[in-house]
UniProtKB/TrEMBL annotation:
It comes from Sinomonas terricola. It catalyses: a 2'-deoxycytidine in DNA + S-adenosyl-L-methionine = a 5-methyl-2'-deoxycytidine in DNA + S-adenosyl-L-homocysteine + H(+). GO terms for biological process: methylation. The active site is at C82. Its EC number is 2.1.1.37. Belongs to the class I-like SAM-binding methyltransferase superfamily. C5-methyltransferase family. Signal peptide: none annotated. InterPro entries: C5-MTase, C5_DNA_meth_AS, C5_MeTfrase, SAM-dependent_MTases_sf. This is Cytosine-specific methyltransferase. Keywords: Methyltransferase, Restriction system, S-adenosyl-L-methionine, Transferase. One of its GO terms (molecular function) is DNA (cytosine-5-)-methyltransferase activity. Pfam families: DNA_methylase. The gene is dcm.
């Protein structure tokens, strides 16, 4: 690539564990500035890369602050906070005063320092957020600075890494993008065993309640007839035997309409068919599934009605083997999230220990061992669990293994497992960034220092 004749300088904003730094360092770049507000990661970045990061980027309040504190550089990278744009968050976008407006801090540095290239990363939902207005706003603001901009989304599994984690990447260049090509997405199969490290055992035991839930659903799979196609919809066991209204009316509607008796006297059943006759409304509410008892739900959306309908039909068609399973395992005594199963291994042998498991609010998710679920930063409980047939025992993926999923296996991680999982869930994948940057940086060191006059640059800072 064109940078072979000399190094280029880059800055790493919202740096986290330093995925951008790892990628650009491997391409011959020199990190000259980083910003990371989380104290543990700020200190760790210094240990890993010998750069003391700036703490709060909001402290670079004025153009003069940026001009003074941020060194000149050729490449800006930023994985600006994704929570305001994520489907898993409130999707407040730029209206999120704490994080949504941090893109404007990136924009300010681009405007003042004029790096020749940039790479920005965020969740793919940013491309559709607010009906596409967020994307259009970002592109327009970058183009006003003279950058040609392009956008694509990639997942690590498209680069041979066994993790499905779709992310949107914005690239920009002051020289135009005529010679730029996005990396080719590969369709070769991946295998999670490629990142497993048997020399670093998990130090965190799986809670007994989680193990019991895995055993319960493992038995469910074993009892299912071999010629039965497992449902592609989420299995909601609380709908097995339930008969409360959901099509034209909802429990909330009945409780409002019949404020004294509610569902009592209608001869319908709640979760798992538990009888509601003779019960007070608060007692009825406790026996209606959590997805169906919100007081404001006077009409269920089509998708929810569909899942309820499909689960009740599945139970009716398979009651002969489901009923003995219900009597043995009593799933109503489990946490509500354990009462649901997401089977993402259609056509595979139904041995739950052959798979990668994830405990989610939406249920026990079972995935083929070709890829790991997307690492997320929210909670330690959603760290992937490896089935016993993959590693000899059921165990959580270790932070070191999760680091391999982010192509960050060579750096020091936070000492706390919880902090490490959270940081890895927020990290950018270094191999994906490197593949994108390889073409974007081509010829960078051979380009003139700037296509803008000194007058233009002074105007940008004024």
């Amino acid at each position: 690539m064109g940078t072979s004749s000399g190094t280029f300088r880059f800055i790493d904003l919202f740096a986290g564990l330093g995925g951008f730094h790892v990628a650009l360092d491997e391409l011959g770049g020199q990190g000259v500035f980083a910003a990371e507000w989380e104290p543990t990661l700020n200190a760790l970045y210094r240990d890993n890369f010998a750069i003391r990061p700036w703490s709060d980027i909001n402290d670079l309040g004025s153009d003069e602050d940026v001009a003074r504190e941020v060194p000149d550089h050729e490449v800006l990278t930023a994985g600006f906070p994704c929570q305001p744009f994520s489907k898993a968050g409130d999707q407040m976008g730029f209206a999120d005063t704490a994080q949504g407006n941090l893109f404007f801090a990136v924009h300010q540095i681009l405007r003042v320092k004029r790096p020749r290239r940039f790479i920005l990363e965020n969740v793919p939902n940013i491309l559709n957020h607010d009906g596409g207005r967020t994307k259009r706003t970002i592109i327009a603001m970058l183009q006003e600075l003279g950058y040609e901009v392009d956008i694509e989304h990639f997942s690590p599994h498209e680069f041979g890494i066994p993790q499905v984690r779709d992310r949107a990447y914005f690239v920009g260049s002051l020289d135009g993008l005529d010679g730029f090509e996005w990396p080719t997405k590969h369709k070769d199969p991946t295998d999670i065993t490629s990142v497993l490290r048997h020399d670093v055992p998990s130090s965190r035991p799986i809670p007994p309640s989680t193990l019991n839930a895995i055993d319960m659903w493992g038995d469910f799979l074993k009892r299912s007839p071999a010629d039965l196609k497992m449902p592609s919809f989420p299995i909601w066991s609380m709908e097995f035997g339930a008969t409360y209204p959901y099509e034209d009316e909802t429990p909330a509607g009945v409780w409002t309409r019949r404020s004294k008796h509610g569902l009592s006297g209608m001869h319908v059943g709640g979760s798992f068919g538990f009888k509601l006759d003779g019960l007070t409304i608060p007692d009825q509410q406790a026996l209606i599934p959590s997805h169906a008892r919100r007081e404001s739900d006077f009409q269920f959306p089509n998708w929810k009605r569909g899942f309820i309908r499909q689960n009740r039909k599945f139970y009716e068609d398979n009651v002969d083997w489901i009923e003995p399973w219900l009597r043995e395992w009593r799933p109503w005594e489990f946490h509500s999230s354990f009462q649901k199963l997401e089977w993402n291994a259609q056509g595979e042998e139904r041995d739950i220990d052959n798979f990668v498991l994830q405990m989610r609010a939406s249920g026990v998710r079972v995935k083929r061992p070709t890829t790991a679920p997307s690492l997320i930063a929210f909670t330690q409980t959603q760290v992937p669990i490896l089935g016993a047939n993959l590693t000899g025992q059921r165990r959580y993926m270790t932070p070191a293994e999760c680091a391999e999923l982010q192509s960050l296996g060579g750096i020091q991680l936070p000492a706390s497992e919880l902090a490490a999982y959270k940081a890895l869930g927020n990290a950018v994948n270094a191999r994906v960034v490197k593949a994108i940057a390889n073409s974007l940086l081509d010829g960078l060191c051979d380009s003139p220092a700037s296509p803008h006059t000194d007058h233009e640059l002074l105007g940008a800072i004024a």
